[in-house]
RNA sequence: GCGGGGGUGCCCGAGAGGUCAAAGGGGUCGGGCUCAAGACCCGAUGGGCUCAGGCCCACCAGGGGUUCGAAUCCCCUCCCCCGCACCA
């Protein structure tokens, strides 16, 4: 069993060592050379990176190395993202002995003896940063590691940088303050993140809805003007309310809420209302019986509607009082149906069902979609929770996007729900019929054993992405950028338009605090927008005591503001150097990553650059790639095809992996298919190329070049042009396909000439090796060294243009056609080994009236070409080949010969 | 619903008005090499006809159109994937 892996691994180690020792990827400012600044968004290091990341970063390496070959002074720095909650959450959960986390760690091959280190966020972050850095190095990335940075207060320089950035944004009035809902522990009043709750509730977010206040028809006791507040996500269905639901076994109270009287359940909901700035004072208890059977008034339609009992009403959710829309809400429909079987309420329930109103026109449904779906899914009762959830979701979704309001909606009639809902809600809130409210879809307890509620924080900070002037700049930036694939420009513009203000601060997460309001931490998308600039000076700024760094340093280095002499006195000459580095490297020439970042990170990146920097420093290019499938399947732990970068480089040769990564796809939104099952083929392919090079370099015939020599040189020339274009766009699959084309042409070349020309074979070796270099730099470095070329400073091959003045392409095409015809004939007449092949060229007169552009002009020319081809054909078919002319031939078939289409006779 | 990406032969995937039955893989079948397997090499792989390099029909989600000519352009329909946010 052949196995080249060990050989490759040795070569890889060797070159990685040399690169590191010689610092070949640590570029210095050099005004005499054009610069190229390439970045890939840093990964979030909550664990080991997998082959999906490898795909993105390896593509980064392809372009970095390609640009180096093209003579650019290339900088590729890399960092790590630690900001946000997942690291905090995971380390916390590990500390608590969470099984899932332990399982994950074990499946990643993390030894249990290391777990202790991971039990705090800092330890976790450092640990995985180290492992992932190691993987990046093993993959051979040409990163300038002097500039390796990571985020959050754990890195005081980064922290200073982010704070500077946010002060700038605030100065420019791009930060605003507002209120924002958050999930809180009801007793401790602290924000409850995923790690503060049981696993099964991770990821549950609040819902935004409204409370509609239904006045009670009569007094309760001697109090008048009491409201039944109904929380709903579907305010627009208020026109179809037939009744109100309360839980028959629930405990309710009469409370004074602000200046009104409300009926509310005596539950955690009171606390939640208070957390949302309602002033709630309990007056007295009210039993469900006191309410059931009474009537309320629909505040919009003024209909009189009964209050009825329903078991499905959860007195801890919403307001514990529910408006019932049987026409469009499956729960309500089935509950009324249930109630028709009840002695006491059957009449009222039937009446309610009769009063159902058609609200929306919805294709595929009758005027009462709730009834339709209850029947379709065969929902039997309100206990049928799963089906009801599904039904509700379906109807809600369909009605929201496709439901057309009927006449009853007045000015909204004819519109779709999503078109008018926002305005409608605004209106009923202004009319004081309703109020905005947030709640949870399920009530659960925090790890501190208290129920969790939604509260409003009043001092939440926002990035003002709604700012029209800011949007304008962002659009302008996109317009001026190279975005590949090009059609994504439109998508970028749309996202810029669509963004509203972004809540940029969280609590209890890893990150940098907001400099003027230190209880807030900048959330993870918001602290990672401008750091590409920070890379340019990071290797230098680290020499300065972070304690001493003030905004004046950044103002000077990035914006050229401040008194230079004074600043030099304060920080030293180094700030001059920093300014120079920044101005040399900036702007970013290419930033490349996956399509998942388009709508978030890349938009932020653009916005913030336009806010802080002058136009000439705005980002210049973005290249987007798709997801990665491994062997045609989505990579996931449950499918068992999950491969971490660490697994991969330990098991396979990295050059083979890099080759497969290149071959897996082009830029764009399509998913790439990384065929790990082909890793051996890739190794073999590369190994064969390696042996070919060292065995053939400087070998071969030395003589006048034949037409076929020129033809192959021409192929090389043409292909290298194509490959250049594909590299610029990171269409790596196309690059490899072009290399395969070269290989196929070489095969034909050898068939045609037997022994290759020395110049030609050398050219082939150099061209293909260099073109492969960005993809498989280790083995190519080895090749270059073995054949006596500089492996540390390779440059893009210069191939002289070979013009097609000899009709080289058509000549070869002609010969190939003759060859194909012969094999077709052999097949049809079922001869395997011909004794002789006669090729008879058309008689002279037939050439007289040829089309202008035909490449063969006369009989002599065709004869020459055929004589040249005779050896090739004879070798291929193992027989003699006679070339003759029609004039002299005695063969009957010779008469059929035409110019460019000689008669072929096989004996 | 909006926005984006798609639907090509057994499968994956290129092609973006003629040179297109449609590149390249893979699979399958047949053959070669081999003690044998793998690897490698050659051939076949829509249907029908034709024992001399050939011809005819069908065909690129479905339907219609533009054109001398459409997988490619236009219109309609159907289907699939992704996003629609406060999260890395």
From TrEMBL:
<dbReference type="InterPro" id="IPR009008">
    <property type="entry name" value="Val/Leu/Ile-tRNA-synth_edit"/>
</dbReference>
<keyword id="KW-0547">Nucleotide-binding</keyword>
<protein>
    <recommendedName>
        <fullName>Leucine--tRNA ligase</fullName>
        <ecNumber>6.1.1.4</ecNumber>
    </recommendedName>
</protein>
<keyword id="KW-0067">ATP-binding</keyword>
<dbReference type="GO" id="GO:0005524">
    <property type="term" value="F:ATP binding"/>
</dbReference>
<comment type="similarity">
    <text>Belongs to the class-I aminoacyl-tRNA synthetase family.</text>
</comment>
<keyword id="KW-0648">Protein biosynthesis</keyword>
<dbReference type="InterPro" id="IPR009080">
    <property type="entry name" value="tRNAsynth_Ia_anticodon-bd"/>
</dbReference>
<dbReference type="InterPro" id="IPR002300">
    <property type="entry name" value="aa-tRNA-synth_Ia"/>
</dbReference>
<keyword id="KW-0030">Aminoacyl-tRNA synthetase</keyword>
<dbReference type="InterPro" id="IPR004493">
    <property type="entry name" value="Leu-tRNA-synth_Ia_arc/euk"/>
</dbReference>
<dbReference type="GO" id="GO:0002161">
    <property type="term" value="F:aminoacyl-tRNA deacylase activity"/>
</dbReference>
<dbReference type="GO" id="GO:0006429">
    <property type="term" value="P:leucyl-tRNA aminoacylation"/>
</dbReference>
<keyword id="KW-0436">Ligase</keyword>
<feature type="domain" description="Aminoacyl-tRNA synthetase class Ia">
    <location>
        <begin position="15"/>
        <end position="666"/>
    </location>
</feature>
<feature type="domain" description="Methionyl/Valyl/Leucyl/Isoleucyl-tRNA synthetase anticodon-binding">
    <location>
        <begin position="709"/>
        <end position="840"/>
    </location>
</feature>
<dbReference type="InterPro" id="IPR014729">
    <property type="entry name" value="Rossmann-like_a/b/a_fold"/>
</dbReference>
<dbReference type="Pfam" id="PF00133">
    <property type="entry name" value="tRNA-synt_1"/>
</dbReference>
<dbReference type="GO" id="GO:0004823">
    <property type="term" value="F:leucine-tRNA ligase activity"/>
</dbReference>
<dbReference type="Pfam" id="PF08264">
    <property type="entry name" value="Anticodon_1"/>
</dbReference>
<dbReference type="InterPro" id="IPR013155">
    <property type="entry name" value="M/V/L/I-tRNA-synth_anticd-bd"/>
</dbReference>
